[in-house]
Structure prediction request, 594 residues.
Amino acid sequence: MPIKEKGYTHWDGELKKSKYPWIPITRKGIKLAFRKKFFKFTFFLTLIPAIAYLAGIYVSERLEDFAFLTQDSEIVSFLKINPGYFNSYFTQGFLLFMIVVILVFCGAGLISDDLRYNSLQLYFSRPITKKDYFLGKASVIAFFLFILTLIPGIIFLLMKIIFSGNLKFISDYPWLIVSITGYSVFLTCFFAFYTLFVSSVNKNRRYVSILIFGIYVFSDILYGIFKGIFESEYFSLLSIKANIQQVGAAFFGQKLPHNIPWIYSFLVLLFICMLAGFVLNKRVRGVEVAQ
Amino acid sequence: MIADVKKLTYSYGQVRALDSVDMDLPEGAIGLLGPNGAGKSTLIRILLGFLPPDKGSGHVLGYDIQSQQTEIRKHVGYMPEDDCFIPGMDAVSFTSYLGELSGMPKQEAMKRAHEVLFYVGLEESRYRQVETYSSGMKQRLKLAQAIVHDPKLIFLDEPTSGLDPSGRKEILELITDISSKKDIHVLMSSHILPDIESTCSHVVILSEGKTAAQGSISELKKIKYSLYEIRTYGDDKGFLRKLEEMGCKVELVEDKIIKIYMPPDKSHLELFRHAVEQDVQIRHFVKSQTSLEDLFAKAVGAE
Prediction:
């Protein structure tokens, strides 16, 4: 049996060049999010709309068993499963609000903690690039947001097929899967940029949390105030929520909630993403350079 | 050769941090010495690719510092000067996480994290949250994360800053052990002369962003000048003036000892001749070893 040298020993393995060097960053970010107080409970709350909409799909196929529900015309129209049903799930105010709450939990500290505790230099002294770093952090947000958007959307679609027992729904709306995927990716990208941007502007995670939540809510309040005064739908461009709902309706081919072209909303959100990208590139670097 | 730079220049706005620095760093333990603001940390950051040089070029372990930063970072460990950690993690998770980011497989990184934490003396507290660590423990943890992936070269930026004497001694012992017995090269920046003298065989002295001196410590001590310590009796003002005219640097130290830095082309016999001429008795005469402090003071022009 070999006698091991006490103290430092060389590692006999080989460093591998991973195709996805950002995966450990994502894994660690998800793990740390689940360790936060009340996160699991809040995340479960966020899944309630998905469960309710899934139940709606089941009920829509078994209306004869739920005759008491058919007496209310609103419920009956809600239980018509079509792209509008999907749109109402994806763009409902409660879901968007809860997504922002989840972002506060899982996203506020993603960059601000690294700035506060000087850990960027630890990341960038490793063979990872800025792109890997951002991708790793953004994937933490994508993980949670896909659980709330893409995965429920696909499950709704599958359950509709299973409960109806035929593929008529798919043949009626073959583009729906593209809409679900496209909208989920769009929403995730926007919120990833938004959260990382806000997280990079301050070293204090609490302040960042307030900003993530505050900007979202305040932009909507601002829209309400201006719309009340000037009665113009164009002020919906000030609201993050209204812009998302507008683009969501366009993705699902539904009537736009605001009487302005959806492309304007899309461009506003795109501008926020570009601004975020620019700021992130400036703020995140291996060393703080004091000019 | 572990690293070399040519005409490396870098400025923070109007402030020139590095000014045409040329260096060749041989294998082993190399000290990067200089007063605060000399450009030591800037140089390390450029070598790691954190900062792009304004001018000049360089290589670390044969890789270009401007185009092959990823390769450099794969083979180099870095222990930053500032406190830095990732909150919410214990030391084992922290160290293995950084090992994974270096390219180690997850299981291997975890195993290795335990090993290096044992090595740096954090075995008892490796499951404690890193934010609860004392300054000394954080220094050890930073060293652990720098060596977790078994690099060929480690950059240590002021590794003993903020440590008490015993903590400092222990960190220096670890550095000496790594560099002398473990076949890992070390570039250690410090403004604490004894730290460099006790751990390094070579030194690069930076002053105001320029290379003031570089080479093997023993060679640098030898070739520059001869150092004598004397004690005199009588009025020695004229005698000391004569020595200065001869090109010697004269320094009065405690206990009436006078240090004479004599140029290599002069003989100590001339010192006695001047003493006779000036009617001064020399009651103590020792050929002294130059310390790094002497070399440092001479290189950076400090009194």
